[in-house]
Amino acid sequence: MRIVIALGGNALLRRGEPMTPDVQRANVRLAAQALAPVAVGHEVVLSHGNGPQVGLLALQAAACQEAEPYPLDVLGAQSEGMIGYLIEQELGNLMAPAQPFATILTMVQVDPADPAFREPTKFIGPLYLHEEAASLGRAKRWSFKKDGAGWRRVVPSPAPRRIFEIRPIKWLIEKGVIVICAGGGGIPTIIDENGDLRGVEAVIDKDLAGSLLARELDADLFVMATDVAGVYLDWGSAHPQLLRDVTPQDLRTHVFPAGSMGPKVEAACRFVERTGHRAVIGAIGDIEDMVQGIAGTQVRAVRGSA
């Protein structure tokens, strides 16, 4: 079975944890322990979030007064290499020595006229107190929105249109390579008026990019691994209800938060509606059971089908 697994940024770096190399490696190691059993006997393609990491890189770049800060597309490429390296190493330590891996820097085309550029919504970076966020907003001309108990930077999140490296990704899969690609939703790229490729200051939603990746790779299953057990109704209430076995039609009767579960639900619906295959959303530690269809929120074209 060909499986595309999207690892959420919060699954790799949990809310409130310090963004140190040791903490991130420890979380990747836990993710690798969950991924290794699935990677044996299946064609596995991995993507991952990068919100905390690219936010940290942006802060580090802005702190250097002697050099011009790199734009978000370049920092996105940097984070793809950084996280891909950790995944390759930690997952490789758990698998047969002959298993090949490859991390692909992945450019994803977006539309420069996408309305997302007028209304930034995508969270990146760490949480701040309100006073810190206001100060940074004035100094860096960044936009901030409230996220839980704190404030985080928000940037445009245009829709993914095309994955430029899809052909080499397919070639690698056919050779038995575990491919890590489209990290952070891919590097946001436009084709300008001269027909040239050019990066833009944005972050593509990783789940929507993962759904596009899974569709273009003809995947049998699309998995979104995060830090909660699945999709809940009445999240945050005294009695949240975990959805277990649903169809896209079921999900579309509800509204989910745009900054968290909403994109995952939309990504799952698009994949199932356009392919007829299964998608699942759930906790990273439950990946093996999610693949088997017994954990997480299973999204199917027909409820209860395979």
CATH topology: the name is: Carbamate kinase
Uncertain spans: none
* Beta-strand percent range: 15-25%
Biggest sheet statistics: 8 strands, mixed
Radius of gyration using CA atoms only: 19 Å
Counted by DSSP, the helix tally is 10
The CATH class turns out to be Alpha Beta
Percent range of helical residues = 25-40%
Shape: globular
Lateral arrangement of strands in the main beta sheet: 3-9-2-1-12-16-17-15
- How far do the termini sit from each other? 13 Å
Identify the notable features of this structure and list them briefly.
306 residues, eight-stranded mixed sheet, four-stranded mixed sheet, 10 helices, 17 strands, 23% strand
Provide the fold topology.
Layout: E1 2-7, H1 9-12, H2 21-39, E2 43-48, H3 51-63, H4 72-92, E3 101-103, E4 107-109, E5 122-128, H5 130-140, E6 143-147, E7 150-155, E8 162-163, H6 166-174, E9 178-180, E10 187-191, E11 197-199, H7 206-216, E12 221-226, E13 232-233, E14 241-242, E15 245-246, H8 248-251, H9 261-275, E16 278-283, H10 287-292, E17 297-299
Parallel strand pairs: 1-2, 1-12, 2-9, 3-9, 4-10, 12-16, 15-17
Antiparallel strand pairs: 4-8, 5-7, 6-7, 10-11, 13-14, 16-17
